Amino acid sequence: MKARYATLVAGLLLALGLNAQAVEKMRLGHNQPEDHPVHKAMVRFAELTKQYTKGEVDISVFPNGVLGSEREMLEQVQNGILQITKASASPLETFSASYKVFNLPFVFRDKDHFYKTLASPVGEEVLASSRNRGFIGLTYYDSGSRSFYAKRPINTPDDLHGLKIRVQQSPTTIAMIKALGATPTPMAYGEVYTGLQTGVIDGAENNVTALTIGRHGEVTKFYSETEHQMVPDVLVISAMSWAKLSQPLQAAIKKAALESFELQKQLWAEAEKVERVKAEALGVKFSRPAKAPFVAKVKPMMDAERQNAVIASLLDRIAAVK
Ligand code: GCU
C-alpha cells in the first residue's frame, strides 16, 4: 500500500512537472569590472542560459579577477575547478595553437571583416580547436583593436625604440613587439595600472576601455592609434562540464552565448564612443599614426609565420572571407 502511494505521488508530481530537476551550478570568472561591456554581455549570457535551460543550468558570474588572472582561470577551467571563463585570444594561443591567427598584426581589413571571420567556419573551428586541451570556446566577444599608449606619443616605430611595453602572455605578441623595436614585458592585465604608475613599464597596448574602465589613462596620457591587432575575447567552458550536459542543454548554452555576442557588439560600439570621450576628459591625447611603417616592420615576422602551413592556410582563409 505504502509503495503504491509513493508511486502515485511520484506519478502526480511528474504529471505536474514538479519532479525535482537537478540544477547544474556553474561559476564564470573573468578579469573585467562590472561596468565593462564584456561583463554585461556575460551577465546576459547567464540569464539567457537560465531561461533556455528552464533553470537547469545556473551560472554565477565572478568579475574583477577575484578568481585569478586570465591564465590562472584558464588553468582552473582545464582542470574542471572552474566551469567557465573569458580570456583574450592572446593568452589562449599557449593553450591551443590556432588562436595565434588572432594575435598576428594587421590580419583584418576592418570591423566587418573581423565579425564575418568570427562567424565563419574558421571562427567555429578555432573555438572547437581546444577540446582536447580541456575546454571549448562558446563565443567570441569584440575587444576592439589594440593600439599603443605611453608617456609620449608613438607616431612611428622609431618612437617605440627602447620602451618597455607591457604585453599579454602570448609568444606572438612578444615577437610582434620585438619586431617593432620595443622591449616586451609580459604581465597580467590586473598588474598593468601599477606597472605604468611605478614605471616598471613605459607603456602598453590595448583598446580604449583600458584607459577608462581599466583606469590606465590616469597615468598614461598618449594613445596612438596604430590598431595593430584585433584580438577577440573568448568565452570558454570546461570540456569536463560540457561533457556532463545533455545535447539539448549544450544547444541552449551555445544559443545563449551567441545571442550574448549580438548584445555585446552593440554595447561595444557604444563603449568605444563613450570611453573615448571619457579618456579625453582624463587628459589623454589621441593621435593617428600612418600604419604603413608599422606594417613594414612586422613583414619579416609575418613571412616567417607563413612558413607554418596551418597558420598560412588559416590566414589565407581569413583573407578570403568576404
Ligand atoms: C583586452 C581584453 C581582455 C584582456 C586585456 C589584456 O582588454 O578584452 O580580455 O585581459 O585586453 O590586455 O590583458
From TrEMBL:
Entries under Pfam families matching the protein: DctP
Record bears the keyword Signal: yes
GO CC terms, sorted: outer membrane-bounded periplasmic space
Example GO BP: transmembrane transport
Gene Ontology molecular function, alphabetical: carbohydrate binding
Signal peptide: 1-22
Keywords, alphabetical: Signal
InterPro entries xrefs: DctP_fam, TRAP_DctP, TRAP_DctP_sf
Xref: PANTHER family: DICARBOXYLATE-BINDING PERIPLASMIC PROTEIN, PTHR33376
Protein's UniProt name: TRAP dicarboxylate transporter subunit Dctp
